[in-house]
User: Fold this.
Amino acid sequence: MPDDQSLTDPLLALRSLTSARIALGRTGISLPTSAQLDFQYAHAQARDAVHLAFDHAGLRAQLAEQGRASLLLHSAAADRHSYLQRPDLGRRLHGDSAQQLRDYAQANPGGVDLAIVIADGLSALAVHRHSLPLLARLEEQALNEGWSLAPVVLVEQGRVAVADEVGELLGAKMTVILIGERPGLSSPDSLGLYFTYRPKVGLTDAYRNCISNVRLEGLSYAMAAHRLLYLMREACRRQLSGVELKDEAQLQTLDGDDAPTTPSNFLLAAAQDH
Assistant:
């Protein structure tokens, strides 16, 4: 039978609106057993996501079924232990993989508009679940824009910055990397997108734009692709990316035909009313 607290706690109504751990109740000064077990289970899911092997063979097979070419590369991190201990190794390609891209670029001169990279990052689970549905939407919109595409590049043990080397070697105007984000206790399968205009080795995060939390419980594939396409269009127009390129796509999609040209802010609007 529920105790009095479970019947009167005003936070209980909010539990249906968030995955955050609120209104868990208590047993004496401790958490109830069910809440503690749920926390331990979520922690185990996050750890498993970090150590899950990247099923690049499965992804390449699905891409091949869709008629999409792909390249399989490896970062300078030899294994998962090295990857976790040495983030710098995950940011660069292994020498053999770099040469593979040079050979491809030599056989296909002229460069491309967009290179799409898929890397396991810190959650291969996120990549397995979300990369291909998002990729389909992204490629469809990119082709509608008339942009040329490189083969999809899969990088094992890769981090965000590895896309800069991929893009530079391929002569790509833009790169987008789809990568598994660091798992949280309520999101072991969150996918992140990082976009760079004129990629080259040595760029810092200030030159990248990030779209985060792409998953069924977070940002939808359609909205993520829409926001990314907006960034790519603006990057081509202004010839830059990163902190100087603001993501205003969501505001524009909410504006109607009669909406003011200046984005609205409900906080400022409230102040003006007074």
